[in-house]
Amino acid sequence: MADREARGADPRSDFEEFIRSEARSHWPEAEVRYRSRARKGSHCWQVDAPGVGEFWVGATEDVLRDRGEIDAAAEGLRRRSWLDRLPDVPTHGVQVRPGGRVLQWNPERDDTIGELEE
Predict the structure, then answer these.
(1) How far is 69 from 86, CA to CA, in rounded Å?
(2) At 63, is the secondary structure helix, strand, or coil?
(3) Residue 66, Cβ density class (10 Å: 0-12 exposed, 13-18 middle, ≥19 buried)
(4) Measuring CA to CA, how many Å separate 97 from each of 5, 7, 68, 69, 106?
(5) Which of 5, 32, 73, 98 is the 20 to 30 A CA-CA neighbour of 112?
(6) Where are the alpha helices (DSSP H) in 1-118?
């Protein structure tokens, strides 16, 4: 992610910009937008990749309150090649949790299915 001094005041916006940057570097026509809070409170973003599909990224509140956790989430996603793998995740969704954990995620139920392994 960008240098800490270059970041805005809102960690959620920083995380959204990370998702947008990653998605557009992978799929240049991708659009990313914040959707809402999911059923159990997770924040939810939709990634539309024309010709590829619609994908979901969730983050728990405790991740979005801490810039160190956002950095860990970004690293965890990159380490798992998340954008390459999202089309194969049954629900087309992943959720980040503290410590850089990345789980397969069902955004409609706001439930995780299991780790997205490295």
Answers:
(1) 21
(2) helix
(3) middle
(4) 24, 21, 12, 8, 14
(5) 32
(6) 11-26, 61-64, 67-79, 82-85
Residue 7: pLDDT band (50, 70, 90) is low
Q: DSSP string covering 25-45, please?
A: HHSTT-EEEEEEE-TTS-EEE
Residue 7 CB-half CA count within 13 A: 19
Model confidence pTM above 0.90: no
Query: Does residue 18 contact residue 26 with C-beta atoms inside 8 Å?
Result: no
What band does 8 get if pLDDT is binned at 50, 70 and 90? Answer: low
Helix (H) / strand (E) element for 93: namely strand 93-97
